## 1
Amino acid sequence: MRNAAPLLAVHDLHVDFDTPAGPVAAVSGVSFEIEPNETVALVGESGSGKSVTALAMMRLLGRGATLRGQITCDGRDITGLTEKQMRSVRGRAMTMIFQDPMSSLDPLYSVGNQLVETVRLHNRMSRARAVERATELLDQVGIADPRGRLRAYPHQLSGGQRQRVMIALALACSPRLLIADEPTTALDVTIEAQILELIRGLQREYRMSLLLVTHDMAVVAEMADRVVVMYAGQVVESGAAEQILRQPQHPYTTALFQCIPTPVTDRSAALTAIPGAVPSPHELPPGCRFHPRCAVAFDRCVTGQVPLFPLDGGARHSRCWLSGDAASGRADRTVVTSASVPGPARRRR
Amino acid sequence: MVEYALRRALYGVLVIFMVTVFVFLALRAVPGDAVRIQLADAPGVTEEQIAERTAALGLDQPVLTQLFHFLGGAITGDFGASFSDGSSVGGLIADRLPVTGQLGLMALAIGVVLGVVIGMASAVRPNGLLDQSLRLVSVSGLSVPSFWLGLLLVTYLAVYAGWSPPLIYQGPAENLGGNLAQMTLPALALGAAAMASIARMLRSSLLEVLQSDHLRTVRARGAGRGTTLFKHATRNSLLPVFTVLGLQAGGILGGTVILESIFGIPGMGSLTFEAVQMRDYPVVLGCVIVYGAVFVVVNIVVDLMYGVIDPRVRYR
């Protein structure tokens, strides 16, 4: 199934932040790969470390963050590159769009100025030619009257238009990997669908890979080829989107799916939520990091780290004893908690 | 925007009017009589002569009458005549203003150029050795009064380098070298505070902008240091710097009064200083009106610059 060399590979990535209380691990041992033209969804709640992972890939974490592990882009490890060397990776190899398009555009320069700047950063061309290219890009991202809109300032655009401009700016770099960090979270639901459709179309046209960082399982179902689920700084499950959607292995993934309301959801009942919150990196629970919120936790979950079990001959992985036991046939366990989740996982068993 | 500028100018005129009235009344409240101070050293002056002189200068009239008389003249551009030699106040100011203009602009230029360079250099590596050393420079610049800094500069150069600035004023047209030799030290002393506050403000403003989302996005597109720091970061940090600049321009204007006297520069500052000592009311008032007008204009220009820098600024 996988034959091409990965465009990008993250191997055993650790990110620590310096805090007054000492270093804190935001990401611990994350590994995944992105193939050419593939869409990988990086999924998890707020605080799971997915955005930090994405920023680490761009080496945009800023001061106070220490990065360990390998990030290989086209076979070259970029973790040791200087800021100057990173400039040839950023934009050309990969670029990133962010959640809030208002704060991500420079408010003092017109859309045209920022587009022309980016176009000329990556292509040797005259200003007039770059203006042509900028107009073309605005047209491609579906902005009406692209030539006139070049003179607009970010504050004169709507949220959806701003995100389209952000996408145009990313395209101006012709990257091979586009990292989209919650690109539709700040937008209306109707606009969200349009933007996702736009990204998907452009991805095909520009032959880009896409790393989609999101907490929204509906978006994952819509877009992803492969899914990497993160919890508290670790990968807890990964595999082909199709399989994960059909048969999630990790209780956390299952719980995430339960949170999507459907047209048949009983409206008188409260919406399903996973009880509790992602633990702060200061106070990670012992054993499985998800066990305090897990509906099916048992004695082994409380002690000892859970390994990432390979399943289906290595095509997917799950960081849960249950998956490991299912693979090895072991079944001695004592249920220690029965968290109040209207047991998606329990029902499955 | 033109409408806004006009309205601001109108308010400015009002401000200058109020300053004029206040200073006029304050001058009369200060102890010391103009005529007696003028004639203090003259031997054998009689009380009749003093009364005669007082009447000649119009100082025997009620204060309000004098005020209306002055305002009436000021509106038509006639600020009266100096008490000491009868020369026109307008003419005196016209002679002195270019000198102070040169000094003030030199001070402002020194403050802006050094302030911007220091501010940027400090923000590149915050809390590094360079930042720490430059912080010492700017905190000193903020804390040391300009007249004292001026005196220190003169003293140290004289003692250790055996050099002192010329004491006889030469215009830039007749002898540029001599002119600059005399003007540079007071300009440096005057510009130090502006330099320090611009550097501090630019540093903190830049550090904040460098952390912002849009700067991160610029970097995510692979832009180099030139584009990120000089194009995007700097312009986004300028608004508070301009606010400081407007305030510091006022400080520089005020500082000229003492520094011109220390360095023997025949500008508006020394004119004001001497006029206050001599209770030469018309000259003091003329100078105050000019200082006020310059300050008002500088602040209008600063407010209009906000709109030039930031397209989101709207004038109402």
## 2
Amino acid sequence: MDQYINTPLTTDKVESLKAGDYVYITGTIYTARDAAHERMYQMMNEGNSIPINLNDNIIYYLGPTPEKEGQVIGSAGPTTSSRMDKYTPLLLDNGLKGMIGKGKRSKEVIASMIKNKAVYFAAVGGAGALLSKKIKASKVIAYDDLGTEAIRELYVENFPVIVVIDSRGNNLYEIVLQSY
Amino acid sequence: MRNLHTDEIIKNIKEMCIEANYKLASDVEERVRGAYERESSALGKQILGQLSENLNIALEDSIPICQDTGMAIIFIKLGQDVHVEGRNLEDAINEGVRQGYEEGYLRKSVVGDPLIRINTKDNTPAIIHYEIVAGEQLEIIVAPKGFGSENMSRVYMLKPSDGTEGVKKAVLETVKLAGPNACPPIVVGVGIGGSFEKSTILSKKALTRNMSQSSPLEHIKKLEDDLLIEINQLGIGPGGFGGKITALGVNIETYPTHIAGLPVAVNICCHVNRHVSRRI
């Protein structure tokens, strides 16, 4: 089923999404990948606040290429999500509602998603030029020293993703293999 | 003896890094675009359609095909009658990579120490494989490699008695474990024989071989064809969302090995299988 949703990603919106749904996201989302996750995780464990408000928000696992003059952002496709698994349950416990990446997630992440009512989307891996066209604004808001791994605030319009794991734990990657 | 100045090498490597990241080689592009017709799953078709569109946008709007513009893997075949003048050859190659990644607006994805992990900010050093050959030419292959797929690659030290079936099992297991992580549809490079490290270099080299050329060895060509069929029966499909097209091709390279061994390396590459070659 095709769905159009706007951020913030509140619990009622999360619960309306099912594994296999094709979703177009509009609104503000944030980027963070390996190094930014490591830093946020450390800061939270030390009791410090982090640069983004996780509540009802979506993190996109992305490290873009540099933008040219006149471009909002460079190539902007998803990176492999499993590298963020170690840090994810803590972020979910603190209000994160959605993640965009590609590939499998750990049992711990899926259990935490069910507990916290969150959703995991995949964007198409290797379609970074196409996906960049759906990003209408981009600015670095933290960890500038990390270069491509800095945290960016993005404004996206009809950003195309697929629900891989929904808030009940249904997993599209496993469902499709059962028919083979 | 022919003199070749490193300025020439720097310029070529710079151009090749940029070219590889904005335009797929025609053999790879044909496979990506051709997959659309062969896929039967609706979602799989939709994904393949987007991959074709992505290639168009990359060229028309000058945006790298994928944001992971890779670590620069470089194969050098240096004719033994070439005299390289100017700088040290390795420095020149890295200078070409530095200039290419900067001027081409490519992502700097290399960290200097694998544990301390500070970005070198110019995508160097490259990974360089040298071969000394006859003649007075320099052949360069630049193959920027993304790590989503690199991370899903594996090496198996099989027993000779495992034979062809053992090789198949290893390749299929690797593809299954990679699943959606490696951005299917994938290209599978396999190195069989040699030693532990030789097999891995062969598997990387296999990825740079033209996809429309099968192995010249009859039994290896059959293995390539059989593996492609079996991989595409796994059902992983484009993006891992199910379908017939899990791999676009299987390329295998072989080398003599020890009486006691059968090394097999499986190097997985996503559909953005980038490689540019030049002879200067």
## 3
Amino acid sequence: MKESETETTKPAAGASDRPTTAVTFAARIERAARGARVRAVLLDFLLVWYAVGGGLFWARWTFNGPAPPWERPESIGSSGHLVLAAVALVLALLWSRSRLSPGRMITWSTHPLLKADAPRPEGGWWRTVHGILVLAILAETVALGWKITEIDLVSLFSSEGLAGAGRIFGALFRPEFGILPLVLEKMIETIYIALVATVVAVPIAFLLSFFGAKNLMSGNRRSLAVYGAVRFSTNLMRSIEPVLWAIIFTVWVSFGPFAGMLALLVHSVASLVKLYSEQVESIDAGPVEAIEATGANRVQMVWYAVVPQIVLPYLGFTIYRWDINVRMATIIGLVGGGGVGELLMQYLGLAKYGEVGMIVVVITAVVWALDYASAKVREAIA
Amino acid sequence: MGFLKVEGLTKVYDNGVVALDNVSFTVERGEFLGVIGLSGSGKSTLLRCVNRLVEPSSGRVILDGIDVTALDVPSLRAERRRIGMVFQHFNLVKRKSVLVNVLTGSLARQGTIASVLGSFSAEDRAKAMQCLEIVGLADRARVRASELSGGQQQRVAIARSLMQGPDLLLADEPVASLDPATSHSVMDHLERANKELGQTILCNLHFLSLVRRYTTRVIALKGGELAFEGRPEEIDEDWFKRIYGEQAREVGIE
């Protein structure tokens, strides 16, 4: 069978009857399918690994019971994990031979070139053996969730438990007004930590956001690489929680508001770059085309065609970010990042719940007021 | 000779769609060339390949002896100054004033920093006002572009192109989102740019009545290939069916 014969008969090759175009297109489909098969095996592997491993752990918990918290929990060890992975890999390779395996269904139906070629079994995929297996894995997740989180309704509603809850709620609702001036001063510190972090983050994120927008950076390989680097590094920075950043910076610059501010700054830059870039990606491409067509350069194009479309959404995001930062600044205080959170942690350690109650009241009032104000401002500029 | 020569132009998009298939034609200086064909026949792609808003897959576009398809980025920018463009959806910067929108036509002549600061020379501002006067919108110069009607926005887009002062004007369905009366006013402005300023025009059009009224020559695309080339009055019933399909019936715009 000659290759060119089979390929020119493909209907997907487009309206052209010129063989060169048809062959290159078929070759691209072939190449896409090769990559997709590898990704499909990977997806199937993850699924099988999870299913078999989860089943194993569920059985262990069910027959041995959970390890008591004061004992070092047992692990199946690295050799156990290797065997588990090997078994899962063999099963996944076998499963992926079928065009209906979940990995192949996902990769084929989401790939732009292979979508048309994805199998559509009669009566729906969920009715096939493969679909039922996936449903079984979902059911396993529910069973595992119950086991892993050690759901225990008895202790939730026991009389001792309820009495403890009553003590703490009682104290919280009788706030110790004597410390109100101190709490307010610390609250101002928290608000400033959030404010400075936001104000410094905005110009940095503004500049980076254009480099993190795919529609502006897909021109050539080099700009795509810059786009990838910006998106990757900010995603990484964002996936590290602010509390973790705060711990890092308390080690770096020692405890206090500066560490908290830096932690919020890093996280704000990363989050704003994502929000800003996505805004740039969703702009109307028409003005970009029009300004480019006049022979303007990149900077002029961004300034005239992109910036006017994003200024208002940027403002909205920034105010929202400040709002989030005030909330986060209180949390960051808990690990030594300064502000009212630090105070909260001290009284919590002394079990002085009346004082804790006072702090919680102030935090709640400030957060509510900011939330309201930021919503109003965003409404006004939209 | 030929002012604009398109040779074997082919565009295959990444998804495999062949938008243009080996299209060749020549346009003389001062012509008003209509481009017709069904939606998806490659008209927009053709225009965008001329100023390389869309990068052609193969073939050449030669404007006044310069191979546009072979230019590097800085030279392409310089060459784009000579090629104006008007769009179906006007593509104005909606949040900026009408005057600033017209001034953007001169960006390629401005320094980067000056243009970012928005400091255009008094001459440029005066010229922009003149361009607005030509399209009859001088009194709306300070208004935000988004506040104008569709027809007015398209006239601002034409003023922007006048400000640019191109030799070649690409018009991509300039009246497709306008009502009949406004359509004629916009087409009249294009005609004046053609006759009085000597701009060569390539104009994608849907309505054959407009093609017959305004263009000096016409080409038709069908499935990305050149299906017809000739004078507008040569498109008879037979050709019409060949270009638009057997089922098509002509509707007019008066």
